[in-house]
Design brief:
The chain is of the alpha+beta class. Strand 1 and strand 2 form a beta hairpin. The mean pLDDT is 90. The chain has one domain. 24% of the residues lie in helices and 25% in strands. Pfam families: DUF397. InterPro entries: DUF397. It comes from Pseudonocardia humida. This is DUF397 domain-containing protein.
């Protein structure tokens, strides 16, 4: 894919309670995924620990 092609995007909103909301930036009318602070923390820790790395 060239730099001029749309590669998609994810929009992130930090919520007042510490949670996070995510949506597809190319489809702002689409579904919003909302995660609690604890869920987001577990996800970030998993990323740092390599839990989602491909084998």
């Amino acid at each position: 894919m060239s730099a001029d092609e749309d590669e998609g995007s994810v929009e992130v909103a930090l919520l007042p309670d510490g949670g996070v909301a995510l949506r597809d930036g190319s489809n702002p009318e689409g579904q919003v995924h909302v995660y609690t602070a604890a869920e987001w923390d577990a996800f970030v820790k998993g990323v740092h620990a390599g839990e989602f790395d491909r084998p």
